[in-house]
């Protein structure tokens, strides 16, 4: 069974797309070379990656890397559906050309994750019933568009957005067709938000088609809430780290994943300031810990 699980790492540890000053000195080639050297076989896509699939494929294939997926920002609650749909199709076609099977989608309508001054806990957006309806219907339509290329959308619950808590994830899953809308399971965002990741995994395991492994530094998470920090300032302070370096015990999480016969990618995604947390060193640390816990 575990042969069907592949391990990837996200480039956000090398260069942060939301705060390009973090890791601006790290090149694309350094990033993917260190990913491969650390023992990963997949990557998600960062801003420094070539936009031409043929060019990107050449860089990745000689390093034994494949594209696991890439983030897509939807604005289904705040903009006309057509705007999101047009951008989505271009994103879908690029990922399809790279051989990816899933498309990571996160609703950014009303999101505060990119606002440097907005306290991530106090200012968290809450959708109206009408916005929930727009979100659910829009996501189902994006799911249909993904199916045109034999792909799936996986919804990314995320800090500072309208789908963050267990209750909100449950509501989204109830409101959407399981055939059209799948779920991304992110350990770090769940624990940071105060949720129980194993309960979320077990409840929605049939919908989970993509996994992000990130860890949380407990003291930093508590400080972010107490000091009313924004999401991005929390990242700068080091709230996220790689599996095995923070408060999360991944052994019971892996037990649940293993028992569910999950197939797909597990992506290490731990955005930190690379000047404080050397990306290659932390990638090696993550790979070693995952090997210990999972045998992968």
Automatic annotation (TrEMBL):
Its cofactor is Co(2+); Mn(2+); glutathione. It comes from Enterococcus hulanensis. The gene is iolE. It comes from the Bacteria. It is an enzyme of class 4 (lyase). Keywords: Cobalt, Lyase, Manganese. Belongs to the IolE/MocC family. Signal peptide: none annotated. Coiled coil: none annotated. This is Inosose dehydratase. PANTHER family: HYDROXYPYRUVATE ISOMERASE, INOSOSE DEHYDRATASE. Its EC number is 4.2.1.44. It catalyses: scyllo-inosose = 3D-3,5/4-trihydroxycyclohexane-1,2-dione + H2O.
